[in-house]
Amino acid sequence: MTARAPKFIQQGINEYVKAMQYASDLVHGQPTLFQLGSPAASSASALQSAIAANSVANTDAALAVTFVSDAFYGRTLIYTPSANPGNSNVVTVFGADWLGQPMTESFTGASGSTAVVYGKKAFFRVFKSRVVTPASNAITYSIGTGTMLGLPYKGDLAYAQENNIQVPIYKRDTLFEFAIAGADVIAGTAVAMQTPFPGFLKNVFGAGTTLGAAQTNALTASLGGVAITGASAVITNNVATLVTSAPTTPGYNANNRFAAGALVVLSLAANGSSTKGDMIGCTLTPTSFQLPDLTDPATVITGDPRGTYDPFTAPNGNPVAVALVGDNMINASNNGGLMGIQHYFNSTGA
């Protein structure tokens, strides 16, 4: 088993190797088990809290003490506004990955929303945050720790261990479909499902048939009793056409992310007329393993260049390990390798 202590890498030393082809702690072509640490539970204000979001543009808020991740290869961050920002405000976080490679990531709060914004990059150290585009309302923000954990190298995951128990890795979208009887289409109904992995709701969909009355049913989705914004579709009962609708804020963000075992409910409103049955469903996208982001060059909002692991059991101090198969391939620009594309860094925060 492989374990590292990146906290002993001298701060300010960048050990990133462009197009790296070999690592002594990695068995090439086979899964190598890496310990990711025993990270504590996600905390919305683990790094900073009550920072003015409506301060002058490009105002820095330094951490009193540099944040050092409790996960060996870093963990993602979350941004939480205290209230409606009134505009699309932008806060950028400055830090470094487990190699000491400088990195920046931007978090954009949407006007009218108080939703948490989930980061994609695994930070090992964080030095400060910066208000790049101030909020128009007098609100504050907090920077905390997410649940996704960083990985040592670019590659693929074969399996994982959580609290010393092996768990599977879900990597593909999963569709849930339900046949709704005609009587329930008339009266309205709801079906519930338990999510088998951590991830997000990608879309909802439904279809009628060429039979029945020309009526429509409104399909909506909720997560944990809260409606998922934008995840709604109107099904025309006598038209055999698949209707699909995605959340307004797509991906692992806002109120459409879930932990393993969460409850998703699809609701079909009544139409009050005679008709045939409908088909309804949704697509769930797992985040157990987020593939390395191969975007070259990386940007302030791209994903992690080595990928991340989202545990089935939310971090709670239990040990987490993954079996990684390294990928040392490079792109046409001779970039990539085992350490992935170089992290984006911009001193202005843009």
Describe the structure.
With 350 residues, the chain is mostly beta strands. It has 2 domains: 6-168 and 288-326, no CATH class; 174-286, Jelly Rolls (Sandwich), CATH 2.60.120.380. Helix content is 2%, strand content 44%. The chain is built from 1 helix and 23 strands. The strands form 5 sheets. Strands 2, 4, 7, 9, 21 and 22 form a 6-stranded antiparallel beta sheet that branches. The protein is globular and about 70 Å long. The chain starts with 31 loop residues before the first strand and ends in a 24-residue tail after the last strand.
How many domains? The number is: 2
Radius of gyration, whole Å? 22 Å
What ranges have pLDDT less than 50 throughout 5 or more consecutive residues?
none
Distance between the termini: 40 Å
Structural key phrases:
350 residues, Jelly Rolls, six-stranded antiparallel beta sheet, five-stranded antiparallel beta sheet, 1 helix, 2% helix
Compact overview of the structure:
The chain has 350 residues and is mostly beta strands. It is 2% helix and 44% strand. The radius of gyration is 22 Å and the shape is globular.
Structural topology:
Elements: E1 32-37, E2 43-52, E3 59-68, E4 75-81, E5 89-96, E6 102-109, E7 117-118, E8 125-133, E9 140-150, E10 155-162, E11 165-167, E12 174-180, H1 182-187, E13 189-194, E14 199-207, E15 216-223, E16 226-236, E17 243-245, E18 257-258, E19 263-268, E20 278-286, E21 289-290, E22 308-309, E23 320-326
Antiparallel strand pairs: 1-23, 2-9, 3-8, 4-7, 4-9, 5-6, 5-8, 9-22, 10-11, 10-23, 12-20, 13-19, 14-17, 14-18, 14-20, 15-16, 15-19, 21-22
